[in-house]
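Dear Dr. H.,

I hope your travels went smoothly. While you were away I took the liberty of generating a structure for the chain from your last submission, since the lab meeting agenda had it listed for discussion. I wanted you to have the full record in hand beforehand rather than looking at slides cold. The sequence, exactly as received, is reproduced here:
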Amino acid sequence: MISRKISMKVLLYGGAFNPPTIDHQKILNSLIREADKVGNCEVWLFPSGENNKKKTGIAKSRRLKYLKALINSVDSRNITVRIERLDLDTTFPEPDKSLTMRRLQAKYPKVDFVLVYGADSIATIDTWGGKWLEENFDIFVFPRGGIKIKLFPRMKMMDIKTANISSTLVRERIRNHEKYTDLIPIGVAKTIKEADYQK
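The corresponding predicted structure, in token form, is as follows:
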């Protein structure tokens, strides 16, 4: 393995964020606190791109607007919190995050990335990057819906209590004309375009 000179650490929080929920907000707050403890560390939101198996059905510009509202809903504590678009702007036939991460490392060779995913995503990691991700990155895992997973050596379970609110639930409520604003940060609620989810 080639040694790299590291300039900073980045907690890379990936997901569809379609739309961001209050659980996303809690996790982001937790990552900011972690970055504050680590020092010389930033938090990047890493919205997923589309592939043959998963399509969001809404415009990139709308997803970015929701993510900016999510960032504005937290106290950043002077930690840099930003959106990295590489995955969002890339379309792969298959959902293989190892390809995405190789590109990201090439783009930012001096950054030490720590991946952040929910237990539900880790439960299926072999279908979207698997062993290479487990061997090459530290991974922070947040609990999700009581899902039990095997933690590999470079994985760490985050001590955070979420309400198990999924973006899927929010979208279903919007489609069914039910109350949903209690499930998402206030700023995100103000930017939601309900028509995005009525299709």
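Two observations you may find useful: The chain has one domain: 8-197. The first strand starts at residue 8 and ends at 15.

With kind regards,
E. W.
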